[in-house]
Amino acid sequence: MVEAAEVMEVMEDRAMMRLVRKSACGSCHACGMKSEEQEIRFSVKNTLHAVAGEWVMVELPQKNVLHAAFLAYGIPLILLIAGIALGYLVAGAVPGLTPHRDMIALGAGLILAAAQFLVMRAMEKRFKKSGKYEPAMVEILNMQEKEGE
After folding, report:
1. CA 119: distance to chain centroid?
2. Where are the alpha helices (DSSP H) in the chain?
3. Where does the pLDDT of residue 72 fall: very low under 50, low under 70, confident under 90, or very high at 90 and above?
4. CA torsion 23→59→63→70, rounded to 10°?
5. Which of 18, 23, 82, 140 is 20 to 30 A distant from 10 in Cα terms?
6. Could you give the 3-state DSSP secondary structure of residue 105?
7. What SS3 string covers 111-131?
8. Do residues 41 and 8 touch, judged by C-beta distance below 8 A?
9. Cut 0.70: pTM above it
10. What fold characterizes domain 2-60+134-147?
11. Could you tell me which residues come within 8 angstroms of residue 70 by beta carbon, excluding any fewer than 6 positions away?
């Protein structure tokens, strides 16, 4: 994903960026924007030494976007389904638990999905430190390039 964004403010080695939503964004919501919001603000490392008011191209590689989506949504879904299946089998095998099989299965699934959330939360600092899931500046645009879009 490569987009043009405006530098709003520079703070030491970071820049606060403003990205205006394009009509192509539609109902995707991958960036977390609500449908009524028209812009998103985020911070990036100012590797190009851009100044406030300049437009720059920022990039987040597609494979990183897909990997982050899998970590945030795919793994919890897999664990939810696995927990339900495991809970259902275990409750069916233990005498006395069979009448409560569905509730135990649901509980096991929710516990595994919640555990994944807690693991992700604990690893959040490591993800931020790696910079893998953070957009990066790739090019400073001049105003003629920006107005020509």
Report:
1. 15
2. 62-69, 75-93, 101-122, 124-130, 143-147
3. confident
4. -60
5. 23
6. helix
7. HHHHHHHHHHHHCHHHHHHHC
8. yes
9. no
10. OB fold (Dihydrolipoamide Acetyltransferase, E2P) (2.40.50)
11. none
Residue from 75, 85, 78, 92 nearest 106 by CA: 85
Domain boundaries, the chain: 2-60+134-147, 64-128
Report the length, in residues, of the chain. Answer: 149
User: Cβ-count burial of 100 within 10 angstroms (0-12 exposed, 13-18 middle, 19+ buried)?
Assistant: exposed
**DSSP-based three-state secondary structure for 60:** coil
Q: What is the pLDDT of residues 13-39, one digit of tens each?
A: 999 999 886 655 555 555 555 556 678
Q: CA distances (Å), 29 to each of 15, 21, 34, 101, in order?
A: 23, 10, 7, 37
